Amino acid sequence: MTVLNCLKKRARTLKSEAYCLYYAARDPRTPWYAKILVAGIVAYALSPIDLIPDFVPVLGYLDDLVLIPMGIVLAKKLIPSQVLEECRSRAQETTKKEQPVNKEEICHLKNR
Fold this sequence. Notes:
The structure is a single chain. The protein is mostly helical. It has one domain. About 75% of the residues lie in helices and about 0% in strands. It has five helices and no strands. Helix 1 packs across helix 4. The longest helix is centred in the N-terminal third of the chain and has 24 residues, at about 5-25. The model has no long low-confidence stretch (mean pLDDT about 80).
């Protein structure tokens, strides 16, 4: 497996996990403190304000690479396992719907 394929696979997994957390945060069985943590993770990830500004060499992006995955892991531990499993299956269905089957299908869709 090439590095590019590995990165693509990880990006798809991250996208699926983001949808999973979104669905879990909207589920009524998820505890309120897990919902707040998920909202905080999303807000920090999308916010232009960081603990360490991105223009600082190396450390600027390092806080994003450490804090966000740690927050995701913690949030997944706070969400009940049954809810997390259901949300993962919904997230996988969502991401499968968005992906074209193959390159020929993409070309066919573009030529319409």
